[in-house]
Amino acid sequence: MVMHSSAQTGPNVATASLLETINKNDYTVEVASPAAGYLVGRLKDLGIRHIPLEFGRYGDIATLLQLISILLNGRYSIIHGHMGRVGPIICIAGRITRVPAVILTEHMSAGSHTWIERDPVRLFFHRLFHIVSNNCLDLVIAVSEAARKKYILRQGIKEEKTVAIYNGIRVGDKNGADRTAMRERLGVVDKDTVMIGMFGRLIREKGYADVLSAGEEILRCNKNVLFLVVGDGPERQDLERLAGIGNLAGKVVFTGFRSDAADIMEAIDILVQPSWTEASESFGLVLIEAMVRRKCVVASDIAPFLEIIEDGQSGFIFPEKNCGTLAEKINLLMGDRSLMEKMGRRGYEIVKEKFDIKMIAAETEGRYREVLSKKKPE
């Protein structure tokens, strides 16, 4: 597998879960990615060989040559890249070295090349490279149906070359730390305090300010509430400023980036994921991480989240950027603990039915076999 980053990101966490579960009797997996970061440690724990491969904004040629060397020194049946950025690189390297199958997993859901559309030269070459990629790729896996449709729209690839396979999570094991102990570590001793959690990178498009804006109304109706913000990013100062206004003061805890975010999730009662369309979310890994822990979830109505949550059954959906409706949904839960628990149980069942990593790994392996079966022996 080829990853353009080794940081602790949603795509890397999801891919590490896949690598942990994939059938090692049928597949020997090696991963090429930058030399330092979360993923490198996870691979070491899993006993999977890591090959350093550096990516830079202007270093794609060097990366390509290095990847060609890696492939020539191994006997690989499949090269599987993650994130669209690596698509042209794995295609060229894979075809030069005659790797039978070239597969890309797309973890982004933008409908256009928004990140470079103001640079016509880069946009031209980006599109040109992806035209080449589209002809070389054997399969594109998108992590949701919404992401699959957006990839087809953005890259112009043939629909029959694409498939949606969700990100997965381990189900059945005890997940995370002890709830009471974790709440005490966060300074929450009152067992009746309802903790509303937000987890992720603190950027404007994630919509966390909407939750704090809704917090005024939530706290007007419910005094025993604490908001927990787990993560860091450029919006943190603005969010902290907003959290110090009015009756929010003293009711919002910012933890910063935490490598033990999964354990911290045990402490909360409700998870809110208020992302905007502009965030280009492709899935919603944090949602299933909460649901597998039987937490009630409240999320904005962007397309990928609608594939995860049954509105009114496993959680609530609210119109993105609509702080009033968000407050109404949370207040409804606050007034009915049994509903909160019922939704948490249903969320767990949905994860078992649709997002169990064992199912996801089996489906991925099936796609590997399908692609390889179409290849003629050289």
Verbal overview:
This protein is an alpha/beta fold and 378 residues long. It has 15 helices and 13 strands. The chain folds into 2 domains: 2-168 and 357-373, Glycogen Phosphorylase B (Rossmann fold, 3-Layer(aba) Sandwich), CATH 3.40.50.2000; 179-355, Glycogen Phosphorylase B (Rossmann fold, 3-Layer(aba) Sandwich), CATH 3.40.50. The protein has helices at 10-21, 38-46, 60-72, 87-96, 120-136, 145-155, 179-185, 208-221, 236-243, 261-264, 285-291, 303-306, 323-334, 337-355, 357-373; strands spanning 2-3, 30-33, 49-52, 78-82, 101-106, 139-142, 162-164, 194-199, 225-230, 252-256, 270-273, 296-300, 315-318. The strands form 3 sheets. It has a 6-stranded parallel β-sheet with strand order 10-9-8-11-12-13, with helices on both faces. Strand 11, helix 11 and strand 12 (296-300) form a beta-alpha-beta unit. Helix 1 packs parallel to helix 2, helix 1 crosses helix 15 and helix 3 (60-72) packs across helix 4. The protein starts with a strand and ends in a 5-residue tail after the last helix. 40% of the residues are buried.
